[in-house]
Structure formats: structure tokens, C-alpha cells
Design a protein that fits this description.
Structural class: alpha/beta
Distance between the termini: 15 Å
Strand order of the largest sheet: 5-4-1-6-11-8-12
Shape: globular
Radius of gyration: 19 Å
Largest sheet: 7 strands, mixed
Strand content: 25-35%
Helix content: 25-40%
Number of strands: 13
Order of helices and strands: EEEHEHEHEEHEEEEHEEHH
Length: 236
């Protein structure tokens, strides 16, 4: 284990998980099992595998169950877990206010993301760009089941039948510089709002494209895909 021992990681694990119901009716989404381990343990184990020694966990909904699980779970030696409780939901960016002493470059990620992303390459890319924030991105295809027209002045200039469009989407994994946090407003703040605030302020926001396996476990369909492909996660 080496490489990112100087980097802290913050995992945002306080969401309600409403899109993943009924799984999350009685257990928090980070504890939903994928293979023989819950989602959050997959995340923690992968971070430790690249050298991360301190992980800060922001919890709210059923956070006591998460803390209870990890008080008994087998973790890699040398790993420190620090718990931060949101008295009320602060959003995917605002939750970072609950974590003290974020005064150096750090990883932040959602607690429902499973990926084979190389965190070391992501951090190196971020440092090279000099950005205040780097977003890991993935190409996501969107199938359009209709004919798509492009028009100019009321005339058709092109026509594509049922095209597949590709978009760069956020993987829910980020690298922050401490200065990015200065742009957080008081109270709740979702991540897209913070990005807009940074851009308005003239800060650089970088995008790191990856084709690594990635599962955003926010819906039953995506959860089932991750369960079927769990071998891809354990082989990374």
C-alpha cells in the first residue's frame, strides 16, 4: 500500500436513498450488499488499496447502522475512519462543511459509487491541471427512439433516425483543493451549485475522463447490474 497515504478521502454517505427503495426502507444505501460486502466497504477497501489511510464519513439517514457495521467489520491495518454527523441534510457539497481541517488536496465521493477508477492517476491529473476541483467523468450513451432533426430558419438541415448520443457524466468522484470550499454558501448546497459558483468566480474546474468500470447505484436496475458484475470490481 502506497501512493496516496498523504491524501484524505471524504465519503458522502448521508443520503436517503429514495430511488433505491424498497432496499433502503430499513437499511441505508451504503450498507446495501454487492456480493459479500456492502457498497461502502467496497469503496473503503479500494481507497485503502491505493494507500489512503484516513477516510472521513459524512452520515445522516440511519447513520447509526453504518457506524455499528464498521465497528465490527474487518478493515485493512492502518486505516482510520472518522465520523461526521449532519444534524440536517446539507447536500452533496454542503456536507463537506461538517469535516474539519480540510486544508490540503482531498478526494470526495458519493457513498453509492462503485468503480475501478485509478485514484492515483486521477490525483496526478488534478495536480497537473492546477484546478480548484476535478470531476471524474464517464461517457454515457443515451438512445433516442425517435427521429432527430436539426433545423435552420424553419428548414431541415439534417435528420438522424434513432441516434445514440454520448455525454460526459459525473462519476460522483472528485478531487478538491481547499480553496474550492470557500465558495460554499451557508446551509445546504448541492454539488452542481458549487460547480457553478466556482465557474462564476473564474476558478478552473477540470474533467478527468475514464473508461473504468463504474456503477452509480441509485436505482434497482443499476444495483442489479453491479451485483451481476461484482467480479469486475474485485479484480481491479
Amino acid at each position: 500500500m502506497s501512493g496516496l497515504s498523504h491524501i484524505r478521502a471524504v465519503v458522502l454517505a448521508g443520503g436517503l436513498g429514495t430511488r433505491l427503495r424498497p432496499y433502503t426502507t430499513i437499511i441505508p444505501k451504503p450498507l446495501v450488499p454487492v456480493g459479500e460486502r456492502p457498497i461502502l466497504q467496497h469503496i473503503i477497501d479500494r481507497l485503502r488499496a491505493v494507500g489512503v489511510t484516513r477516510i472521513d464519513l459524512c452520515v445522516n439517514y440511519l447513520g447509526g447502522l453504518i457506524a455499528a457495521y464498521f465497528s465490527q467489520a474487518r478493515l485493512e491495518p492502518g486505516l482510520e475512519l472518522h465520523w461526521h454527523w449532519e444534524e440536517r441534510p446539507l447536500g452533496t457539497a454542503g456536507a463537506l462543511r461538517a469535516v474539519p481541517d480540510l486544508d490540503q488536496t482531498f478526494i470526495a465521493m458519493n457513498g453509492d459509487v462503485l468503480t475501478g477508477l485509478d485514484y492515483r492517476e486521477l490525483v496526478d491529473f488534478h495536480v497537473e491541471t492546477g484546478a480548484a476541483l476535478t470531476i471524474a467523468t464517464h461517457k454515457n450513451p443515451v438512445d433516442i427512439d425517435l427521429g432527430v432533426l436539426e433545423t435552420t430558419d424553419g428548414y431541415v438541415s439534417s435528420y438522424r433516425e434513432k441516434p445514440t448520443l454520448h455525454y460526459d457524466v459525473s462519476m460522483g468522484v472528485y478531487i478538491y483543493e481547499p480553496r474550492a470550499l470557500k465558495h460554499l454558501p451557508d446551509g445546504e448546497c448541492q454539488f452542481p451549485e458549487l460547480v457553478q459558483r466556482l465557474l462564476t468566480a473564474g476558478e478552473k474546474v477540470a474533467a478527468y475522463s475514464s473508461d473504468a468500470p463504474w456503477y452509480d447505484i441509485g436505482t434497482p436496475q443499476e444495483y442489479e447490474r453491479a451485483v451481476q458484475d461484482v467480479a469486475l470490481l474485485t479484480e481491479q
